Records
---
Amino acid sequence: MYKYNRIAIKIGSNVLTTQSGTLDIARMKQLVDQIAYFHNKGVEVILISSGAVASGRSEITPRKKLDSVEVRQLFSAIGQVKLINNYYELFREKGIVCGQVLTTKESFGTRRHYLNQKQCMEVMLENGVIPIVNENDTISVTELMFTDNDELSGLIATMMDVDALVILSNIDGIFDGDPSLATTKLIREVNPNQNLGQYIQPTKSSFGRGGMLTKCKIARQVAKEGIPVYIANGKTDSILVGIFSDTTKTYTKFLPCEKETSSVKKWIAHSQDFAKGSIVINQGAKNALYGNEAHSLLPVGVVRIIGEFQRHDIVTIIDEDNQSIGVGKVEFDHEKARLLAGKSNQKPLIHYNYLCLY
Ligand code: GLU
């Protein structure tokens, strides 16, 4: 019945909270009912749900003044329990088992953790369980945090190779102007090369960390991987069923590019934020990498090694003008890489299969 076998759905904090900031159980039930409908039709669904911090806020008044990190840790620790309990009960009423996956940005940085997470969710899906993913807000603080759950949903969508990603927030999609004006229209489709810069307001949502800017950036990246992305309003009744049965057009769809990248390259391409160190290469090596034939990065073309890394970590590749030109999975640790830099007749520092140039 549906053209999609596996979908990821991201639900933002604003969808799940009432105006006063408490958890909107009626809305949650609406969404769970729709997800159950797909599940019962044989579609695998992965849920990325925010709302932990927002759920915790109404449960406790801190005894003394806390800083913003402490507030987030306290509220998320309490709120995640409440959030998942509600999902658990609502799915149970539908005869569906769900499970919790809490993750951190760091867990996407090493291939082993990446594969462990992927394997965990594959096993859940194989057993008919709906994974409900959120950031582990209790330990993800400041620079270790995802920009927001939109970024997390993009990583999950490409990691799990879904057929579509839906990002639900409390607006209908991307508009070509101020949404409060009658002349403004919803942009229904975005082509891979279409520039949206002029339309997007850099404002953040009130209960979550995300905004339209990151939503668009993530949607574009995921669509580049060959996955269509829908941005839609989670407060609209039956929105998910509407999108997938073609009975609504109230969303912005990012049209996908051709699918081509291998799963390893996919992981590497999305790992630039987790790079542990850098390798500076000379012009000759740069020419070879950008040449017509596939070339690995050899130590002979390396000018300098910056920072520290272990074998199989992700590193940034930099040219002599200090421009970052790509990322790759490195075969030696920083000490060995420093010893080999500039030497000929050595094994590749980054194999072609583990190299992604921008
Ligand atoms: N992980 C956060 C929560 O559950 C939400 C982050 C975001 O707003 O995107 O409250």
Note: The longest strand covers residues 6-11.
---
Amino acid sequence: MKILVTGFTPFGGETINPSWEAVRALDDSIAGADIIKCEIPTEFEASIDALKAAIDAHQPNAILCVGQFGGSPSIQIERVAINLRDARIPDNKGNQPVDEPVFSQGENAYFSTLPVVDSAPDAFFSTIPTRQITDRLRAAGIPAALSYSAGTYVCNNLLYAALYESSQAEKGNSARCGFIHVPYLPDQA
Ligand code: PCA
């Protein structure tokens, strides 16, 4: 069993991202599963490219992406990814898409951004056991909550792309995918 766990580079003027700090601190093997760690750029396009490259290289059975949610009082277990990019601030490459899809449908002329796919649903549900994860964290005394919006920035974009990829069973991708938002570290708060 291989689990790909990703964190993001710092963004928005921060010098660290708690998501990558948490991911890189994980053991390389947990409960018999190999943990593959990958730092993902906080950029709309490059994040998807980096994820796809890691999927191709490692063929994971599950994918858990982690991102920073500054100001959150708890860990947020994301249940949904939507096909929308609507950035409040530019990404690390200077791109600030507004009212654009993550993936455009071929026949949809209104949206002309890349990448174009045959069928891009409005939303995907995460395919990891979100409620059980939330319950286990809370039982361990760690503030955690189910979340029904991963936002419209790079994190939602990456979860959408991960769930899109894992919905392509005919391409051999069928990993379970989910996303966890973590609060600031004390140094950032
Ligand atoms: N958090 C941002 C993108 C990168 C990160 O760590 C987000 O919530 O979209």
Note: Residues 8, 11, 17, 19, 42, 67-69, 151, 153-155 surround pyroglutamic acid (CB under 6 Å).
---
Amino acid sequence: MSRPTDSIHGQWSSRWTFILAATGSAVGLGNIWKFPYIAGENGGGAFVLVYLLCIVAIGLPLMMAEVMIGRRGRQNPVNTLRSLAKEENKSASWGLVGWIGIVAGFIILSYYSVIAGQAIAYVFRSFAGVFEGVTADGAHQIYLSLTHDPERLLAWHTVFMVLTMVVVARGVKSGIERFVKYIMPALFAILLMLVGYAANTGDYFNQGLHFLFTPNFSKLTANGVLTAMGHAFFTLSLGMGAIMVYGSYLSKTTSIVKVSIWIAITDTVVALLAGMAIFPLAFANELTAGVGPGLIFETLPIAFGHMAGGALFGGLFFLLLVFAAWSSAISIVEPVIAWLVENKNISRRRASVTAGFGIWLLGLLTVFSFNIGENWILFGKTMFELLDYITANILLPLGGLLTAIFAGWVISKNNAKDEFAMKTPFFYPIWRVLIRFITPLAVIIVFLNVIGLLG
Ligand code: PFF
């Protein structure tokens, strides 16, 4: 059976542009907004340690698996998994795993866009000097005045969705490639500056480091472990076909191992730096680490409000946060778009409008969960929390587990090796043990633990 040697959607210009695009996908709200607040909610150090273990034992092998599968299949994740399964004489229903990803992407982008919208709102507030001299209470009120107003949230959510779909409609290559080349280094630079500022808070910086890096296992619950694992998937964009679809645009000659390690390291460093920038500022301003999703929107403005040039600097920071979210959002929706273009035979533009509208509509649930729908509680969670939980803690680990099984057990040893190991024959056996045994077992153990079967 013949496999396509190119994707109909094009190919990255070089290995570096793939690394940048995949890093653009990985580095996003997950690193700068979500990681600090979930680390805060789950007690810090021990959570961070479990998260790092998950990146190494689960995330990294899975990232390599997704790139490998994507590049071998050269189609959207549903078609890729189906055709590679058929090639190995296995059931075509493996395509269903691709569907888990498409559903997860739909839901993730629906709330991701609302949070990214909040970041856009903060760009304007910051540049306008709204945070100058602000107190902790004042920052809290500014945050509430945005989130408690459904019209404003909806407007910013709409703006972000339009921005995302405009780039997606123009094609991944001319959109993202151009974008990430400038944006990622700038984001990194600003983050370092913020860490530098936090380092000047003296004792508070040490307190922040202590919080992040000293494990206190008594604070870690089974659910905290699941959240750490789910976040490893979320932050590396794994378990839903985003990296797989990006892999399908990758040249045959690129070493999968090297690029994956680069992406995972950069992503992890950005998350840790974000934590190191934010916790000292939170502690210095007598905020608790566990305030939840508002953490970044309530602590950073206080710091910006008290530093020289804070309005400019703060505006720039939120702008870069928006760009980071933007380059991630594009990758979240790319599997859906590739599927629509390949299977429904419609143009990218039409696919973008259709998918974008559906996701925008679903986003209303998150918009309302901050205000008029605050009390719509299901399983003890608001709509936003529920969508986040279902995707990050269930769908992504499930999609990832099945993808690992697919890469380790369905694709034959020789085919995987052929795709994978060109420049790194030495690493291949290690990867194979990880993806066949360690990655799936780790995911299953964490799941069983949460259900309570392991006590
Ligand atoms: N990795 C992104 C972040 O950390 O913000 C979020 C994300 C992107 C999740 C792409 C899933 C995905 F497929």
Note: The two ends are 48 Å apart (CA to CA).
